[in-house]
Amino acid sequence: MSSAAQPPDATPAPRVAIGAIFTECNHLGGAPIDRSWFERFELLRGDELLASATGAVAGMLQVLRERRLTPVPLLYASTCPGGPITRDTYKVLKGELLARLRAALPVDGVLLPLHGAAAAEHVGDPEGDLIGAVRELVGADTPVVASLDLHAHVTAAMVAGADALLAWETYPHRDAVTTGQRAARLLADTVAGRCRPTMAMAKVPVVTGAINGSTDGAGPFADLMRRAKALEAEAGVLSTSMFLVHPYLDLPDMGSGALVVTDGDPERAARLATPLAKEYWRRRAELEPEVRTPEQAVAAGLQVEGTVLLVETADCCGGGASGDSAAALKALLDAALPGPALVPVVDPAAARACHDAGTGNTVTVAVGHRLDPQWGKPATVSGRVLRLSDGGFRYRGGIWDGLQGEMGPTAVLEVLSRGDAGSIRILLTTHATYEWDDEQFRSVGLDPAAAKFIVAKNPMNYHLSYSPLAAATYILETPGPTPATVRHVPFRNLQRPWFPADPDIANLHPTLLI
Fold it and tell me: What are the distances in angstroms from CA 442 to CA 206, 235, 318, 446, 483?
């Protein structure tokens, strides 16, 4: 029954505002994120937001409708990771979201499906900035609950401004929808007066890549996640979250650890979070990966029978890199390959040259290192244009399940390795896109199962498609803004000491945010 059709004495349904700016950013490299990035992914308002069928937003909307709360759509802008959000883009998006909230007041609660590792050119902590601005508008008594990626950089401003923060529980990320549901249930219970969330975050200065950060099977982060989630069976514990901080930000007070939400007992939240953070510190070395140069990895792979996976995590679009590295490509060009290799490179100029040449024709073109040239020099190659595409594909799971991906004008260029041995099929795209499964390769007819070498430019999601068919997997050490380890990154704002730059820190105690 709509509010207009309710009897005069009926209590109106509580109204819950929902909206956010969602992305992950990189201070070490990558292209700045402007408005066009959000337009290629999600830029939703009003009924567009209410029709969302993916991600945390969809989960939140499902629960609000089940609990008979009225969703009040603000603005939801999400996009693939990149460099910091431009000043003007953040100002405009934040301004519109807050203007829509101001016009909707009063509301009974606010849901913010955030990431937690965004950055703007002039704001290091957009999530804390946005939560604080929302709090100022709605007042101290209106509950504000935010969902976060488990790679969030949880700040004092975020903890101070929100009533509760809840993180995704899986990596690879399969639970954006269910995390949205968890956040909405907690908010609904808070609005109904069934609980009073209080929280504490315990952090230790561990800043590591995500290679060993899976929540599946055995492993340091998986073990910590299971230990944290077991606490939710205790009375009065409303939520627990583990955070492996996104290591490619350069901000003060970065670290990893645990966040616990209790029912009206912040001291208990702190007591439960602190041992988890201490255990995180104890297992810090297990999160550092073993790496090889591309040349070492290719040489080792040539001795292996079957498909070999080369993980060039330093060029991860899903971590904010441009995706334009040619480091792995060069090592493959210099080898005598017994079979085909698949290599993705974001290079608008090379993709355009292939489109200009046309399918079946030969083209000589420089490939790579033109969007973020600080990491290397292009590789000049000659090859045949195998296939051309508009770059459209559809995600088959993860954060943007079902959403249309846009690589822009795309080409498959086939070149020969040394001695005219096996071919290398270079997927040349115009825009960076988040890698979930192997949607990008499949969209242009490339079959990873038939390849001798596959270059995957992400630290974790490659397991979904490639681990089952890979006879060997090598983590590459290459230049780039998303390296497998940040041990040697010259951070300017992250203060020492921190691991792994400092293997041991005397008398370390977790930092508490309450």
Answer: 37, 48, 18, 5, 26
Distance CA 216, CA 172 (A): 8
CA triple 143-147-149, angle to 5 deg = 155
- pLDDT tens-digit profile of 133-145? 999 999 999 999 9
Q: What is the C-alpha radius of gyration for the chain, rounded to an integer number of angstroms?
A: 23
Read off the pLDDT of residues 309-338 as tens digits, 9 standing for 90 and up: 999 999 999 999 999 999 999 999 999 999
In sequence order, the β-bridge partners of residue 494 are none
Pairing type for strands 341-346 and 453-456 reads parallel
Over residues 163-173, the mean pLDDT reads: 98
Give the tokens for residue 82: 């990149």
Residue 422 pLDDT level (bands cut at 50, 70, 90): confident
Per residue in 490-500, pLDDT tens? 999 999 999 99
Map tokens 């504490």 to a residue. 200
- pTM of the model as a whole: 0.95
Q: Which amino acid is at 175?
A: D
Residue length, the chain? 514
Give the list of residues 6+ apart from residue 367 with CB closer than 8 angstroms, or none.
326, 329, 345, 347, 350, 378, 379, 380, 381, 413, 426, 428
CB contact set of 321 (below 8 Å; sequence gap of 6+): 26, 29, 30, 314, 315, 372, 432, 457, 480, 481, 482
Structure tokens, 481: 């803004």
